[in-house]
TrEMBL record:
An annotated Gene Ontology molecular function: protein-arginine rhamnosyltransferase activity
Protein name as catalogued: Protein-arginine rhamnosyltransferase
Coiled coil, from the record: none
Entry similarity comment: Belongs to the glycosyltransferase 104 family.
Protein purpose: Protein-arginine rhamnosyltransferase that catalyzes the transfer of a single rhamnose to elongation factor P (EF-P) on 'Lys-32', a modification required for EF-P-dependent rescue of polyproline stalled ribosomes.
Reaction equation(s) it catalyzes: dTDP-beta-L-rhamnose + L-arginyl-[protein] = N(omega)-(alpha-L-rhamnosyl)-L-arginyl-[protein] + dTDP + H(+)
Keyword field: Elongation factor, Glycosyltransferase, Protein biosynthesis, Transferase
Keyword Hydrolase: no
Top-level taxonomy: Bacteria, Pseudomonadati, Pseudomonadota, Betaproteobacteria, Burkholderiales
Superkingdom of this protein's organism: Bacteria
């Protein structure tokens, strides 16, 4: 799959570069390392920072970054040092404390490292990078300081968000240009289809859907509706947690990358999980994107296409207010019938009701226009890496 990363994305860290350590504990799936790796690459390539990533799960990481070696305690990829954080107390073979320390998603830093942070003069700028939420309270808590109970250190809470006053979400400087170049180039799209599916691009009348989701009971109903749809649907499914259900629908033992199947108006291509920049191209090549978790949810917004979000499920349905908070931003200016249709579809995809594809399609043109407008509104909040770098610099002075 083609990569959206320009070849110019090379580390530019100077000897005087700001040093930054990012600590990432992978809870599950790919979002924790997905966000950290994207942030690391941006701080290195766009801000010239010297970045190290401490990560405890190289297997999950390697899926997004295939050049990573699984057996190395320390390695460099794109000029970023990657330390296999193999036990909680470990902080690399030599204890060096960076200028900026990012603790991702409240993972606990090695105590030995925190003690060294306290000894460092000047003290490093310490962030806890939180999970993304579109809820209103986020702006009130963004950049709140939290003094350490024992050491002379202050941790700053950095909250990503979709609205003003939050930390924003990650967006690379090259992203829009790369997307528009892909969309404008028929040969680039044809080459992508050939490389990714082994076929030419589908007929313009077909709706191309990318499907990245957790296991989802609503998928069977949707697959039936796509099969029976008057207009053809071409489904692109990266190998993952929803693949088993799609395979069963087609009567296949599995949906391994490279397989194709057809039923009625629905055809499916199973795709290999790509390196991270390649996932953007999949979103750009599709008309509608089903995304999940955190990072793919953000990428779908930058793809400026209608999308459906499978939010990461939490205990006691704590995720449902977050789903509605995101809808409140994204659907804000939609006419009420399109807004209701979108909300119904998103709710159905997250466990409440049956998704109605025909209704979604009826509003497709309006949703597409809103998707483009929303990408512009979201960009006003500023890119997370840029926002974080700016704040850190004010603290380092
Ligand atoms: O994988 P996710 O579900 O991740 C998470 C985690 O579950 C995490 O614990 C949770 O807290 C968080 O969601 C909210 O979904 P996400 O965030 O979209 O991450 C997927 C990453 O995988 C993203 O960076 C895009 C990338 N990706 C590829 O690089 N290639 C691919 O082919 C695909 C499908 C995705």
């Amino acid at each position: 799959m083609s990569s959206a990363t320009p070849s110019s994305e090379q580390p530019v860290a100077a000897p005087t570069a700001i040093a930054c350590d990012i600590f990432c504990a992978v809870i599950d799936n790919f979002g924790d390392i997905g966000v950290c790796w994207r942030l690391a690459r941006q701080l290195a390539s766009e801000h010239g920072w010297q970045v190290r990533v401490f990560v405890d799960d190289l297997h999950a990481f390697q899926k997004l970054c295939p050049s990573l070696a699984l057996d190395r305690a320390r390695q460099a990829v794109d000029g970023i040092v990657i330390e296999h954080w193999h036990e909680p107390a470990h902080a690399g073979d030599t204890l060096e404390v960076a200028d900026v320390v990012i603790e991702a998603f409240a993972c606990e830093l090695p105590p030995i490292y925190v003690a060294a942070m306290a000894r460092r003069e000047p003290a490093p700028v310490w962030f806890n990078l939180e999970y993304l939420s579109a809820e209103d309270w986020v702006a009130d808590f963004h950049l709140r300081p939290s003094p350490h109970p024992r050491y002379p250190l202050t941790k700053t809470f950095f909250f990503p968000g979709l609205g003003p006053g939050t930390g924003g979400v990650l967006k690379e400087r090259y992203l829009d240009t790369a997307r528009m170049a892909f969309e404008a180039s028929q040969p680039a799209r044809a080459a992508w289809w050939l490389k990714t599916t082994g076929r030419a691009p589908p007929h313009a009348a077909a709706t191309v859907v990318s499907l990245f989701a957790y296991e989802n009971p609503a998928v069977d109903s949707l697959l039936e509706q796509w099969r029976d749809s008057a207009e053809p649907v071409v489904l692109l499914v990266p190998e993952g947690r929803i693949s088993g259900a799609v395979a069963r629908f087609f009567g296949l033992p599995s949906l391994a990358a490279g397989s194709h199947a057809e039923r009625g108006g629905l055809s499916v291509h199973a795709l290999a999980f790509t390196e991270q920049p390649g996932y953007d191209t999949l979103l750009w090549a599709s008309d509608i994107n089903f995304v999940r978790g955190e990072d793919s949810f953000v990428r779908a917004q930058w793809a400026a296409k209608p999308f459906v979000w499978h939010i990461y499920p939490q205990a006691d349905d704590a995720h449902l207010p977050k789903l509605d908070a995101a809808l409140a931003h994204y659907a804000r200016t939609l006419p009420s019938d399109a807004r209701d249709a979108l909300a119904r579809f998103w709710h159905a995809w997250n466990g409440a009701g049956r998704p109605d594809w025909a209704e979604f399609q009826r509003h497709r043109a309006t949703l597409k226009q809103r998707a483009a407008e929303w990408a512009g509104e979201l960009a006003q909040v500023g890119d997370l890496a840029g926002n974080l770098a700016l704040f850190a610099k004010t603290q380092l002075k």
